[in-house]
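Marked as duplicate of an earlier ticket. Keeping the data here for the record.
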Amino acid sequence: MADDGQYLGRLQDYYAKHRVLPSYARIGALVGLSSKASVAEMVLRLKTEGFLESTPDRRLKPGRRFFERALAESVRAGLPSPAADAAPEALTIDEHLVANPSRTILVKVKGDSMIDAGILDGDTVVVEKRAMADVGDIVVAVLDNEFTLKRLARDKGRVVLKPENKAYPVIRPGDDLEIFGVVVGQFRSYR
């Protein structure tokens, strides 16, 4: 049982590469178990813990915990601090960023008008589709049938769209403003 974390890691890597889980025979070769009974016991343990499930035709598929990632307590962005030896919590990215899956989409950012808010060209923002937003929210708005990513603000009693880069002007949409959604998170890849 102590190796289940390593076995799960190998299955996760396989899934990331092939977008499907291997057969029981391939699992044995992948994780280094020679008997079918050992593979079946390991799979059963991972199913019991919620990492794997079976489809109606008895194929394996990722379970509700399959995409959990270790969540370290914290890391300082300033001076180094001692590393903790405690086992980390687990977190799935969807559970952390997506409260309403049916209303949530991912949007790739193009441009640099939001760099002072930490949103860079090439980032992906997590957007919850909704027509209402609060002042201060970062929103995806529709202006002249085009999407734009800006901070919702007020200026002289009117709603405006404020870029987070001084090189860009504030947009004063008047009555034509349509909120498509509110940014609830973001991520980027350094690959």
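See parent ticket for discussion. The longest strand covers residues 146-155.
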